[in-house]
Specification:
0% strand
Length: 45
């Protein structure tokens, strides 16, 4: 899913939480949304 679809689901209360790649998020989030957590990356080596 693209972030816009997730934003719509969150803002219309069809979803309580969304997880997406930080690299795909816009710099400014939609009004009413916030970035709540950033998890540490796993060591892939």
């Amino acid at each position: 899913m693209f972030t816009k679809e997730l934003d719509i689901a969150l803002l219309s209360h069809q979803a309580n939480v969304a997880v997406h790649s930080l690299k795909d998020l816009p710099i400014v989030l939609a009004k009413g949304l916030k970035l709540a957590a950033v998890l540490e990356r796993a060591d892939y080596h």
